[in-house]
Specification:
The chain contains nine helices and seven strands. With 258 residues, the protein is α/β, with parallel strands linked by helices. The protein has a single domain, classed as Rossmann fold (3-Layer(aba) Sandwich). It has a seven-stranded mixed β-sheet with strand order 3-2-1-4-5-7-6.
Amino acid sequence: MNQEANSPMEGEAIFSYIAKIQQGTPWGDFLDAGTGNHSLQWITGLETKSWTAVTCGEQYANSLKKNYQRMIRPEDRLVIGNWTDPTFLHGESYDVVLADYLLGAVDRFSPFFQTQLFNRLKPHVKERLYVVGLNPYPPKAETPGGELILDIQKLRDACILLGEDRCYREYPLEWTLHQLELAGFSIEDTKRFPIRYGMDFIEGQLNVCRGKLPRMKDHRLARELEGAIERLNERAKNLNEVEKGIRFGFDYAIFAKR
C-alpha cells in the first residue's frame, strides 16, 4: 500500500467486497500488480494456485520476503520490476489481477504513466481485474476532522518535496472508470468505502514527514517543520479523543473484466 493507505478496517472491508464478488470462482493464478504488506497478507491467506507480487523497491521486497517467508510456497513469487518496462513479465497472464492503490503510486515511481497503466496491465489479465484507489481529497473540508486531514496531507507533501522525493497522486473514481473503459475493460461493479481515520494512520503520515527532515538542505526550515509536525500531532490526539476516529473521504473498489 502507498503512503495514502488507510486503516486496516477499510482494507478488510474492501478485501471482503472483492472476496464476495469472487465467491464461487477459483482465484487461480493471482497477480498483485503493486504489492504491499496489507495486500500480501490478504493474498497469502487465499486459496490460489499461485501468486506473483510486484514491487519496485529491492529493499522493500527483501523486507516482505523476510516477513512472509513461511507463507511463500514454491510456486509463489515476489518480484522486483516496473510496469514502464515493456519486457517485464512478458507473456505471463493471470486469472485475477489486483491493482491495490497502484494508480496513486504511479506518479512517484513512474511519472506520467497513469494513462498507460491499464493498457499495460491488460495483456496480463485473463479475465478479472480489481482496482482499489483513494478518491482525491476535496480542496476544503466542512468539519474540523476533515480540516486536520487536509493539513496533514499538505504538510506531508511539502516535506516529501523538500526532501527531494516525489509525492503520490490519486485519481477520482470517475477518471479511473473512464481509463479502464478506454483500455478495453468492461466495468462490472463499483463500491465506495467511507474512511474513518485513527491515530495509527495519522502517526504514520507524520512519520513520513519526520523521515524527510534529515534530507532537507535548509536545516532551519527543517526545524520549523519539525515544530509544525508536533503541533499537528497534538491537535490530532485532542480531536481523535473527542470524535473517536475522523471521518473524511472515501476509498473505492472496481471490478472489471476483459
